[in-house]
């Protein structure tokens, strides 16, 4: 069991000021944001527990007589105030040590510095063929633009921002807080001017002092050939205007492609189905196929089987990075058995059946003859 006095490196007769001084020194050494050693977190928690106990007269007296078990039996919390995290202790560090970055704290951004505008997203829907060949489409967006009346200052024409009376133009004020180490004064952002150091007493009527106004803008969007469902286009500086002269954000256009009732797309290839009669499949044929470029004649080889395909090269979707290169149009064959036959067709199919069965029987007779030779 650790000794609280040893943890802080002090004598048992140490005063509260000596305890504070020792804690401050050791905490600087073992804070996990400063010390990346594996044991730093555990050491830091021990420091908090030792400090919290020895700074309380009742807890210290109990600890001196009975140790840590005595604290438990007396009903005191022996886990320390920072057992589950460093949130409270980080506040102490930010005030006690002047905000040196402990606990992940970092210097707050200057509110008067240029700030980049927000990015925006716009979803649009286009037709299947428009995605294949590309198009130019007019889109409309509502975004923030720098107010033309006040040029972004937020003040009415002829007026100027005034020095904040609360902070005297510094953008920050002193604030005293009570922590486990006592009362400490820390520098905080001015709540009146929000750190700017100036306030606008006579705001611009067009933007109400914001420096930016919402404006509808029309943009000619050039959609390249070959975009697919879910493709995203980035339009630089078409988002919200920046603050204090900062650059505008970007506009991201997300494209949703309506599915085609005829074509099925897979990457840069497209698929269609073609129904053939048994005669066409057996004898072959030349048929007209609807492609992305219009109707084309396609040669179907004799003996093609159900589920096999014929490829039309260069008739698919353009490659997005190399539009001159296009995928394939793949025609998948489906052989359809007729269900309503005319009398003439029945006669022909019957004749075909007899011919085919006769061929099969003839093969069977040959087999029987061969078998007989070897008996």
Main beta sheet: strand number and arrangement? 4 strands, mixed
- Kindly state the percentage of residues in helix: 25-40%
Q: Structural class from helices and strands?
A: alpha+beta
Radius of gyration: 41 Å
- Distance between the first and last residues' Cα: 99 Å
With strands numbered from the N-terminus, the spatial order across the biggest sheet is 10-11-15-14
Number of helices: 8
How many distinct beta strands?
Answer: 15
Q: Strand content of the residues, in percent?
A: 25-35%
Which tags fit this structure?
375 residues; four-stranded mixed sheet
Account of the protein in words:
By secondary structure, this protein is an alpha+beta fold. It has eight helices and 15 strands. The chain has a four-stranded mixed beta sheet with strand order 10-11-15-14. Strands 1-9-8 form a three-stranded mixed beta sheet. Helix 2 (16-30) runs antiparallel to helix 3. The longest helix is centred in the last third of the chain and has 31 residues, at 343-373. The radius of gyration is 41 Å and the shape is elongated.
Question: TL;DR of this structure?
Answer:
By secondary structure, the chain is of the alpha+beta class.
Write the layout of secondary structure elements.
Layout: H1 4-8, H2 16-30, H3 40-54, H4 57-73, H5 87-96, E1 120-126, H6 128-133, E2 135-146, E3 162-163, E4 172-179, E5 182-189, E6 198-199, E7 212-223, E8 232-235, E9 251-257, E10 264-266, E11 269-276, H7 278-283, E12 285-291, E13 294-300, E14 309-318, E15 326-335, H8 343-373
Parallel strand pairs: 1-9, 11-15
Antiparallel strand pairs: 2-7, 3-6, 4-5, 8-9, 10-11, 12-13, 14-15
